[in-house]
Design goal:
The chain is mainly beta and 114 residues long. It starts with 5 loop residues before the first strand and ends in an 18-residue tail after the last strand. The mean pLDDT is 90.
């Protein structure tokens, strides 16, 4: 995809092994224990943008990790971890979800709870 492409803040219902083949992407990661991110969430998508000042105001003491993943690098994203992705360059990526062990946890949808 093109540089500047953003995948909004969300969590997944399976584990992901993300592999960057070309270009660089920046991941903002927050653990599932930050339940404040469920406020206003729609299904798996958070209502807040972690790149906005509102994130600091909404979750001032949240554990937030940022990592840049470049060509030939991989990042394991466990089920439930919130992540926001920004392509810093033109990028080619691969997301692996089919592992030897079962990996689909469709019951994990805390954003659906009202």
């Amino acid at each position: 995809g093109p540089a500047g492409t953003v995948t909004p803040f969300h969590h997944d219902t399976c584990n992901i092994l993300f592999v960057q083949l070309y270009g660089t992407k920046r991941f903002t990661l927050v653990p599932p224990t930050e339940t404040r991110l469920l406020d206003g969430a729609r299904s798996m998508y958070a209502a807040i943008d972690p790149e906005s000042p509102a994130m600091e105001a909404h979750c001032p003491d949240a554990v937030v990790k940022t990592v840049d993943v470049g060509p030939g690098e991989a990042l394991f994203i466990p089920i439930g971890w919130w992540h926001h992705v920004r392509a810093l360059d033109v990028s080619v990526s691969l997301a692996c979800t089919h592992f030897v062990r079962p990996n689909f946890f469709n019951w994990y949808r805390p954003g659906d709870v009202k």
